[in-house]
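Hey, I'm writing a tutorial for new members on how sequence and structure tokens pair up, and I'd like a real worked example in the thread rather than a made-up one. If someone can provide the structure for the chain below, I'll link this post from the tutorial.
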Amino acid sequence: MFDLIIKGGTVVDGAGGEPFLADVAVLNGKIKKVGNLSDAKSKETVDAGGNLVTPGFVDIHTHADLSIHLEEHEDILMPMVMQGITTCIGGNCGLGAAPVTEENRKDIVAYNEAFVMRSADEEGRLWGLSDFLESIEKRGVILNMGLLSPHGILRL
């Protein structure tokens, strides 16, 4: 038994071939079978008739790393997921949430705020890159994320 079957969608698999009608079966968060699954059983079924079924999209230029650590990150980043984005890259434009030290905190807050047009001051939070990554890993995130070295933050 599968966890999920997406039925009757037009599959665009990203391999360059023509789109095709198929069902897609998912087990333990991974695609296990693609094809005619009319006899297969699943815990959940989604009717995708008339819709495209595609791999997740990668957004290579985001500033999601400035909110991925926040408790409300799911609310902030849900519009990306609803557009099919499953992976994003942060650290663009030299912005970043870490590392933040006592010496550079004020400058980093001002630098980030100038670009994102919202408050980036988080009550004196200080952390190195490993602290930032550990906090995200422990809590979990709504998107897969890759991080560039934020050159502006590193210079500050």
